[in-house]
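Researcher: We're teaching a course module on how sequence relates to structure. For the next exercise, students receive a sequence and then see the predicted structure as tokens, so they can try to spot secondary structure elements on their own. Here is the exercise chain.
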Amino acid sequence: MTRQNLLQQEKTIITQWLNKTAPGTKHVVELGPSGNSMQIENFPLTEDSCIELLLILDRYPESAPMGIYIRNSPENKRLIQCQTGTSNSGTCSASGSSFWMHINFEPAPNWAVAPEDLGKKSSLLSFLKSIQKKHSQFNR
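Model: And here is the predicted structure for the students to work with:
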């Protein structure tokens, strides 16, 4: 299976999960033109807050993203601030001149995409679910 086919399948699985997890919210999942990024609008970080995030996929499927990029806004900083001191501001060309803040999340050890198990063990969906889980652990 080609990298592009894997990414398209991941995109479909993530979109279905988002629609099930946060029904009634319009979710947009877009792959960048080269397939090196994925932008997600209205990712449910908590039950009552959604964020726009960007994944850099330049090493996919061999490696998980080394974190996420979120819009650099005061509201997003408050959502993330309590859980990590490893954020770095910067720009990302994947979305024009928009300003993003990088949040470092370590993927599970031995992360490797298995085409027959997409959406389960090592996949972009499992990576996104781990972000949700980590955020909820820090905000109890």
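Model: If you want an answer key for the exercise: The helical segments are 3-21, 74-81, 124-138. The two ends are 41 Å apart (CA to CA).
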